Amino acid sequence: MIEVLIVDDDPMVSEINKSYLEQVDGYHLKGTASSVKEAIRFIEKNTVKLILLDIFMPETEGIQLLIKIREMQKDIDVILITAASDMRTIHKAFQFGAVDYIIKPFRFDRFEEALIKYKKQTNLLLNDSKLSQEELDHLLLKKQEKAVQEMLPKGLSKNTLREIWNYIEQKKGLDFTTEELVNTIGISRISIRKYLSFLEKIDVISSYCSYGNVGRPLTMFRSRQESARNIEPYIGDQRK
């Protein structure tokens, strides 16, 4: 049985998570906590394999528990179940080792899918048999592709995002406009703006208004090389 700790400051949500957990085979609720401090005290005294973690909690956000677990070198995995849907938070959660991310409100089937997938991966890792490179690649790529699909906002595709980012990188820090991308990529201005908005949210580009002598101000964009690695979870590390 996989021992689970539920960490959420809302008793109603905690009860829902508990009820859902009881419907999935192979899991046992070890305990609950309503704050990061309480959760830390619990894992110091008890053995758990998986934490179902909220982010928005009093005093300390749930992400700090994720970071603390890594500092303590605890063999504990974390699935985020939270209303936080901004890309920076999602990116940070995966950076610190979250194995899945469920956005509230959610349905039972999404919850069940996450736990079934986690149980399969856990059982695979406990298996002494060796994997071929092809089997490992299939496992890792399937997991990565699903994570990217869930992380990208609706209407955005990985391939188009990669094409846009390749163009931006070719600019080598020089300014560019929406119109340039429309002409180069060949999709609508509205679609380009959605991709640019996403890239700004993950902090890989910045924008400013250029005021000319006549006409309306023009929005200019440029890449932020110091944070360019933020794009890698969404398109892959192209330097490899």
TrEMBL record:
<keyword id="KW-0010">Activator</keyword>
<keyword id="KW-0597">Phosphoprotein</keyword>
<keyword id="KW-0805">Transcription regulation</keyword>
<dbReference type="InterPro" id="IPR011006">
    <property type="entry name" value="CheY-like_superfamily"/>
</dbReference>
<dbReference type="InterPro" id="IPR024187">
    <property type="entry name" value="Sig_transdc_resp-reg_cit/mal"/>
</dbReference>
<dbReference type="InterPro" id="IPR051271">
    <property type="entry name" value="2C-system_Tx_regulators"/>
</dbReference>
<dbReference type="GO" id="GO:0005737">
    <property type="term" value="C:cytoplasm"/>
</dbReference>
<dbReference type="Pfam" id="PF00072">
    <property type="entry name" value="Response_reg"/>
</dbReference>
<keyword id="KW-0238">DNA-binding</keyword>
<keyword id="KW-0902">Two-component regulatory system</keyword>
<keyword id="KW-0804">Transcription</keyword>
<feature type="domain" description="Response regulatory">
    <location>
        <begin position="3"/>
        <end position="119"/>
    </location>
</feature>
<dbReference type="GO" id="GO:0003700">
    <property type="term" value="F:DNA-binding transcription factor activity"/>
</dbReference>
<dbReference type="GO" id="GO:0000156">
    <property type="term" value="F:phosphorelay response regulator activity"/>
</dbReference>
<dbReference type="GO" id="GO:0003677">
    <property type="term" value="F:DNA binding"/>
</dbReference>
<keyword id="KW-0963">Cytoplasm</keyword>
<dbReference type="InterPro" id="IPR001789">
    <property type="entry name" value="Sig_transdc_resp-reg_receiver"/>
</dbReference>
<feature type="modified residue" description="4-aspartylphosphate">
    <location>
        <position position="54"/>
    </location>
</feature>
<protein>
    <submittedName>
        <fullName>Response regulator</fullName>
    </submittedName>
</protein>
